[in-house]
Amino acid sequence: MREWKIGLALAVVLAGPLQAADWVSVGHDADVEHFVDADSLARTGEVVRLMKRAVYREAHPIGDTPGLPLMKETTGVVECDCVRVQHRAISLQLLGVDGTVLYSSGDMKRVWESIDPGTPGRATLDFACARTTP
């Protein structure tokens, strides 16, 4: 029994930051549930930076090319502008069924995009802005 507990503790440590985060569901669309890491919220003025995760109900191919690995989720850093109601992705990773990183964008220079009401992007912004102060 002791070996099992030690093995579980080691697995949690080695699994990395996704398991250590405080992932809160903020919404879903057709086949994706969206999460925000509540511990990652960092606000500067009207902009909140956060970690976001999207988990697909069913794994699916990355593209149309046969033989590519299946993607199960994405993670990344997003910034939300609480006043202008817009957001942008700062970085993105695509993860396979077994959690391996299939693609990592590194830092991206993205433009701000408006957010439509009733979308997971808006739920993310509302959550992040309500949980932080300028």
Summarize the structure.
With 134 residues, the protein is an alpha+beta fold.
Helices and strands: which structural class?
alpha+beta
Major β-sheet annotation: 8 strands, antiparallel
Radius of gyration: 16 Å
State the end-to-end CA separation: 49 Å
Could you tell me the number of beta strands?
Answer: 8
Helix content range of the residues, please?
10-25%
Low-confidence stretches: 1-18
SSE pattern: HHEEEEEEEEH
- Contiguous helical run count: 3
Q: What proportion strand?
A: 35-45%
Features:
disordered N terminus, alpha+beta, 3 helices, elongated, 8 strands, 44% strand
What's the arrangement of secondary structure elements?
Blueprint: H1 2-15, H2 17-20, E1 23-28, E2 32-37, E3 42-44, E4 47-61, E5 70-81, E6 86-96, E7 101-104, E8 113-114, H3 120-130
Antiparallel strand pairs: 1-2, 2-4, 3-4, 4-5, 5-6, 6-7, 6-8
Task: Please give a structural write-up.
The chain is of the alpha+beta class and 134 residues long. The chain has 3 helices and 8 strands; from the N terminus they run ααββββββββα. It has helices at residues 2-15, 17-20, 120-130, and strands at 23-28, 32-37, 42-44, 47-61, 70-81, 86-96, 101-104, 113-114. Strands 1, 2, 3, 4, 5, 6, 7 and 8 form an 8-stranded antiparallel sheet that branches. The chain is elongated and about 45 Å long. The N and C termini lie far apart (49 Å). Mean pLDDT is 86; it is low at 1-18.
